[in-house]
Amino acid sequence: MKKILILAVLAFAFTVSASAQEKSGYQFTDGKLVKTTSIKNQYRSGTCWCYSGLAFIENEIMRAGGEEMDLSEMWIVRNIYFEKAVKYVRMHGHTRMSQGGAFHDVTEGIKKYGIVPQEVYQGLNYGTEKNEFAELNTVLKAYVDAIIQNKNKKLTTAWKEGLNGILDAYFGKMPEKFTYKGKEYTPHSFAESLPVKMSDYVSLTSYTHHPFYTTFIVEIPDNWMWGSYYNVPMNEMMETVDYALANNYSVGWATDVSEKSFSRTKGIGILPEDKIESMSGTEAERWGQLSAKERAKELYSFDKPVKEKVVTQEMRQQTFDNYETTDDHGMVIVGTATDQKGNPFYKVKNSWSEERSHGGFDYFSRPFVECKTINIMVNKNAVPKAIRKKLDL
Question: Where are the domains of the chain?
Answer without folding.
Answer: 24-271+308-391
